Amino acid sequence: MKILLAEDDAMIGEALQKALKKSGYSVDWIQDGSDVELAVETTEYALVILDLGLPGKDGVEVLKSLRARENDISVLILTARDSIADRVSGLDVGADDYMVKPFALEELEARIRLLLRRKAGQKINELKVGDLALNLNTNEITYGDKHYTLSAKEFGLMHLLMEQPKNIYSRARLEESLYGWNEEVESNAVEVHIHQIRKKLGKNIIRNTRNVGYQIGIET
Questions:
Q1: Lower Cβ count inside 10 Å, N or C end of the chain?
Q2: pLDDT tens, 135-182?
Q3: Which regions of the chain carry the CATH code 3.40.50.2300?
Q4: Which fold has domain 126-216?
Q5: What is the dihedral sign for C-alpha 25, 151, 177, 27?
Q6: Is 45 helix (H, G, I), strand (E, B) or coil?
């Protein structure tokens, strides 16, 4: 699950990128508002976390531009602007949620899960495919009556595959979802993660269509 973080404060940006990666998200971090639209146009993101006081182009103007282009990507504003007028303005121009700094990381992650869940039309923090259930709060997966804890990358991979279980994803698409711009990716990284998941859940849990890609191996 890939997130775009638009935040010009280096300390906040670094801390958020690290924390969200630990929770299983892939995070691309930019510090200039002028770069947001290009990033969204060229990369598939599940969510944008948007500061308003960005250099280059103010966050409100960025959001207006996205909505004017009929881009419906989920946007969570995270800003120090705490007046009622600012909140109303941010929501009125198209934000899906609005948080004020300083903030609690736990609340931010809960709001991220809420927006992702809402986008996918889910009511609870769980993805289910057959007897397979992925807990979006704990990075735990249940298969039948057995419970397993997934690493951050394993969780991210299963989240993507289970959200659209009928889709077949190429290795390149999985790499793009699991890794940010500045992360080095070994040539067999996706295969290693899939191997570890299969060791836990069984070799048929992920199906490989030769020369095409991967999908969940359980019938929906």
A1: C
A2: 988 889 999 888 999 998 899 899 989 988 889 999 988 988 888 877
A3: 2-119
A4: Arc Repressor Mutant, subunit A (1.10.10)
A5: positive
A6: coil
From residue 171, alpha-carbon distances to 65, 68, 197 in Å are: 32, 33, 16
Helices (H), the chain: 10-22, 36-42, 59-68, 84-92, 105-119, 152-163, 171-178, 189-201
3-state percent helix, strand, coil for the chain, nearest multiple of 5? 40, 20, 35
Helices 171-178, 152-163: axis angle to 10 degrees equals 120
pLDDT in tens, 113-130: 889 888 777 667 788 898
What single DSSP character describes residue 33? G
What integer is the mean pLDDT of 4-13?
95
55: its two tokens: 């250099």
Convert the pLDDT of each residue in 192-212 to its tens digit.
999 999 999 998 899 998 889
